[in-house]
Amino acid sequence: MMRLDPKDPQRQRGLTAVELLVTIAILAILIGIAAPSMSRFIIQWRVSNAVNALTGSLRIARTEAIARARPVVVCRVASKTSTTCLSTAGTTGFASGWIVFANNDRDASSDYDATSDELLLRQDAPAGIANISLTNSGRFAFLPNGLLNSTATGINIDGMGFSSASATPWARKGLCISKPGRVRAVADATNCGSDTQG
After folding, report:
1. Within the chain, which residues score under 50 in pLDDT?
2. Nearest Cα to 98, choosing from 71, 42, 60?
3. Where does the chain cross the membrane (predicted)?
């Protein structure tokens, strides 16, 4: 009868406790290094999604205003079920969501009326966005000629957990909206320059 040597590699299966602890320690270090980069990536991705959603809504509103030969409004709403335009930008701005509608009754207040106006698009509150701040009243109205019915403006979109533009500039993106309805993405709305002049 043949006996196997305990030092024989064929008998050694699995890991020792020391090898397992070393593997876990290395894995913990790698996760610790990767986690901040991953959270930063997620915030940037969410901010980009919000920029794309708002840019798309503004472009749809301008296109529909020209095509329908009547004003089309983008306004802030309080929730995903609301159609009441909020008259002010509020503390979180458009981060609570917005609607796009054809202002068929052409009322001066640019408020949505379910009996006469036509709802074109609804955008729920974008995930992971703390603030979409703007300088106007909380709505954009595009005239039948495609012009914005207000002064040009800049908008900053801040990701959740954003502390300040200087501390975490990667968590903010800006949009510049000119009077002719041109929408341009920038790092910060303070960079809009001539876009917000007319």
Report:
1. 196-198
2. 60
3. 20-38
